[in-house]
Amino acid sequence: MRARGAVLVVLLLLAGCTGGAGPAPAPVDSVRFASYDFPENQILVEVYAEAVRRAGIPVSVQHGIGTREVVSPALQQGVVDVVVDYLGTALAFARPEFPRPPVVPEEMHAVLSRTMGGRGVDVLAPAAAEDQNGFVVTRAFAAEHHVRTLSELAPLAPGLVFGGPPECPHRPFCLLGLEQVYGVRFADVLAMPTRAATLEALLSGQVDVGMLETTDARLAVAPVVLLEDDRALQPRENVVPMVRAEAADRWGDRLRKALDETSARLTTDDLVQLNRAVELDGRSVAEAAALWWDAQ
């Protein structure tokens, strides 16, 4: 029932249902991309969508559809055609009860491909670019408490406030994983609407620990410390495009080649620079993607 409701939400968004005249629905004669509700994923979707445009294939993009609970069913049920995901998180979401999940990217990709293939989705080759969940404190906090690792954070956590995305308490690689792997239990948890808001709350003292992606460009300029994941909670998170099988068949080699060539070029440093262009330099996600392709 939850999945049906999620897909209905996506259908309404794609149709631009606002109670009156709204945007036209995404055309069925285009490759329909959808992004998750955070900036980096929107950037990645634009990078891959731009490659498809330059291959001469019509494209439509719908940004910020929601979390995986919304977007994954929409992909499987044919509401959207392409989603750009992260290998470890995508596998954990697709196979939450997998008894011994693989840790090597090639094996993770093989299991994800088999799983999603049975649901009408092709998992293409992953990129070298990788992004994981990261947990940060201010430099002042790290110096005062002599904290550099998540293990060292654990005994302090009962007196601390955590800030992160609303879904974090239920994610195996966010708060749920911190509790299971490190025994970290915070005094309070505040839901943050954006990563920028998380950083602001951290620097203002509203929260003591925040979640930011490891490729967040602000890590290089803000007075914060990324805590070491010394017990390897985070899986490998290579960027990986997933395509509805019917769309892949319809558009053929041109679509697959455009997406595969993008993955072959994209590095983690590229991802950091793309994030910087949007988060620090004020570019739109479409501008950042087009500039990256022009530089290629």
Describe it.
By secondary structure, the chain is an alpha/beta fold. The chain folds into two domains: 2-130 and 236-295, Periplasmic binding protein-like II (D-Maltodextrin-Binding Protein, domain 2); 133-226, Osmoprotection protein (prox), domain 2 (D-Maltodextrin-Binding Protein, domain 2, 3-Layer(aba) Sandwich). Helices cover 45% and strands 17% of the residues. The chain is built from twelve helices and ten strands. α2 crosses α11, α4 packs across α5 and α11 packs across α12. The protein is globular and about 55 Å long.
Write the layout of secondary structure elements.
Elements lengths: L1 H14 L15 E6 L2 H16 L4 E8 L1 H9 L5 E5 H8 L10 H13 L3 E3 L9 E6 H7 L4 H4 L7 E4 L10 H8 L5 E4 L3 H10 L4 E5 L10 E3 L12 E6 H21 L2 H12 L5 H11 L1
Parallel strand pairs: 1-2, 1-3, 6-7, 6-8
Antiparallel strand pairs: 3-10, 4-10, 5-8, 5-9
Give the strand content.
15-25%
CATH level-3 fold name of the largest domain:
D-Maltodextrin-Binding Protein, domain 2
Task: Enumerate the spans where pLDDT stays under 50 for 5 or more consecutive residues.
Answer: 15-24
| Count of DSSP-assigned helices | 12
CATH architecture of the largest domain: 3-Layer(aba) Sandwich
Q: Level of helix content?
A: 40-55%
Shape label: globular
Helix vs. strand class: alpha/beta
The pLDDT mean sits at: 91
> What letter string, H or E per element, gives the SSE order?
HEHEHEHHEEHHEHEHEEEHHH
